[in-house]
Amino acid sequence: MSSSPDVSLRNVTKRFGDVTAVEDVSFDVERGKFLTLLGPSGCGKTTTLRCIAGFETPTEGDVYIRDQRVNTLQPFERDTSMVFQSYALFPHMTVGENVAFGLQMQGIPGERAADGGSRTEGEGRGGALASLKRLVRREGSEEVDARVARTLDLVELPGMQDRDVDELSGGQQQRVALARALVTEPTVLLLDEPLGALDLKLRKNMQVELKDLQTELGITFVYVTHDQEEALTMSDEIAVMNEGHLEQLGDATAIYEEPATEFVADFIGETNLVHGEYQRDEDGAVIVANGLTYRVRPNEGANEGGEEAFAVRPEKIRLGDEARGLDNEFGAEVVDEIYKGNLGKFVVELENGHRLTVDMQIRDQGQYLSVGREVTVGWSADNAVTLTE
Ligand code: ATP
C-alpha cells in the first residue's frame, strides 16, 4: 500500500524583496526517507528548509506535511522539529532542561513555554531565563522525565540530564540539540547543517550515527548541507539546488553517474567537461569539438546540431593498453602528475589541446607515468554523459 509523502513542496517560490531565494521548487519526501538539500552557499537550501519548518512562508506555492497544507501554520503547530547548526541551546541550563524544552514547545504536558516563558517588559535577559527555568522545572512530570531519559539514551548521552550544557563538548552539545528535536517524536526532522561546527573526524562519526538513528527510528529526515560527500554518504535521495532552482533529484548513484545538468556534473565529485556540437548518427551520438569527434551517450533532451557538453569522470578514463578498443581512443601526452600513490592522478593533453584529468589504480611501478610521456587514453561512450545545459 502506498502512503502519501511526509513532505511535499508544490511550486514553492520565496522572495525577499528583490532576491528570489527559492524559485518554483517541487519535490516529495516519502515516509521514512532521508532527503538532502545540497548546493553551494546561497542556493536556497536553508530557505527551502525553513519553508517546511514554518519559519518562512512561501511567496508562492504550497507546502504539505502528510497531505495537510501547512503554509499558514506556525512552526510548533507542524509535526516537524528542527536542528540548527548553531545548536541554539539555552546556556546556563542543564541537558535535561534543554531537552524537556522540546516538549514544552509542543505543549506536552500543559502550557507551551513559547507562551509561558516569554519575556515580559522590563524583565531583562536574566529574568526571562529564570522564568523559563521555572517553567521547565514545574513541568517535570514523570512522563517528561521518562521521555527525556529515553531520548538521551538514543543520542548516547545516557544519564546526562543534570549536566550543565556549557560544560559539554561541541559534539555533545549537538547531541543535546538532536535530543531536543527528537523528544517530540516528530513525523519529520529538519536538520540545517547540523554537523557544520564539528571537526572532520567527529563529523564523519556523527554522519554514520545520524544515518543509523534515522534508519532505526524510521523518521523522515530533510537535511541541508553544502558538503557533497556528506550528502552522498547519508541520503536516500539528494535534491541538488543552484540559484534557487532544483537542478536534479535522485539517489546518490543517479546524481553521480547520471548528472542531468552541467552544474550537477561539476558540483558533485570531480569531472572532465567538454563542450562541442552534438550530433546523432547510426551508432548513437557524438560531440565534435576542436577537431576531435567524441562518442557520447545519446540524450533525448540534447539539441542536435547545437552546442552541448559531455562529462566523463576521471576514474572512467583508461590509459595505455586498457584504453585500446574503447569507443573513444586518442593519443595524448602526460602534462602533469598531481598525485602518485596507489591511486595516481594525472593530467593528459589530447592532440587538440583538451586536457583531461585521469585517475588510475597503480598496480606496479612500471605503470607510473612521468610528465612528457606519450600515452593512449580511452573511455566508453556510456561513460561520456551528455548534458543539456
Ligand atoms: P548557506 O549554505 O550559505 O546557508 P543557502 O543555500 O542555505 O546558503 P539561503 O540561506 O536559503 O541559502 O539563501 C538564499 C538566498 O536568499 C541568498 O541570496 C540569501 O542572501 C537570501 N536570503 C535568505 N534569507 C534572507 C532574508 N531573510 N532576507 C533577505 N535575503 C535572504
What does this structure look like?
The chain has helices spanning 45-53, 95-105, 113-116, 124-138, 142-154, 170-182, 200-217, 228-234, 252-257, 262-267, and strands at 7-16, 19-29, 34-38, 60-65, 68-69, 80-83, 188-192, 220-225, 237-242, 245-250, 272-281, 284-289, 292-296, 307-312, 318-319, 328-340, 343-350, 355-361, 374-379, 385-387. With 389 residues, it is an alpha+beta fold. A six-stranded mixed sheet has the order 6-7-8-3-9-10, with helices on both faces. The chain has a five-stranded antiparallel sheet with strand order 13-12-11-14-20. Strand 9 and strand 10 (245-250) form a beta hairpin. Helix 2 crosses helix 5 (142-154) and helix 5 packs across helix 6. The longest helix has 18 residues, at 200-217. 38% of the residues are buried.
Short description:
The chain has 389 residues and is of the alpha+beta class. The protein contains 10 helices and 20 strands. The two termini are 38 Å apart.
